[in-house]
């Protein structure tokens, strides 16, 4: 049993606690050059996903981006559940234009 737990901890990029739900969220850029899925938990703060996204796509870190879900800007300091993001939802990455909030 301990070996199985150890193997799972090596596979999952986070600690799983009672009550956590595992989600896959999909990042898509407006110009559609990125289609990327990420495993996460409902309790993850969005900024954690944002950091992982920038690790995978460092060229986007140079831009001033906003992340949208259902045409609303995601609050990166809230967790996925608070942002109403669920399993298999799509997050749009958009480069922020001057005067845009």
Folded structure, characterized:
The chain is of the alpha+beta class and 101 residues long. The protein is 25% helix and 28% strand. The chain contains three helices and five strands; from the N terminus they run αββααβββ. It has helices at residues 2-11, 46-56, 58-61; strands at 22-29, 35-41, 65-69, 72-73, 90-95. The mean pLDDT is 88.
Secondary structure elements and pairings:
Layout: H1 2-11, E1 22-29, E2 35-41, H2 46-56, H3 58-61, E3 65-69, E4 72-73, E5 90-95
Parallel strand pairs: 1-5
Antiparallel strand pairs: 1-2, 3-4, 3-5
Q: What is the structure about, briefly put?
A:
The chain has 3 helices and 5 strands, in the order αββααβββ. It is an alpha+beta fold.
């Amino acid at each position: 049993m301990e070996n199985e737990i150890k193997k799972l901890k090596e596979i999952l990029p986070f600690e799983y606690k009672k009550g956590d739900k595992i989600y896959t969220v999909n990042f898509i850029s407006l110009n559609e050059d990125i289609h990327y899925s990420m495993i996460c938990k409902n309790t993850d703060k969005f900024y954690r996903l944002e950091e992982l996204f920038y690790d995978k796509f460092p060229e986007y870190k140079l831009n001033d981006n906003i992340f949208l879900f259902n045409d609303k800007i995601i609050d990166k300091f809230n967790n996925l559940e608070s942002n109403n993001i669920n399993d298999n939802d799509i997050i749009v990455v958009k480069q922020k234009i001057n005067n845009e909030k």
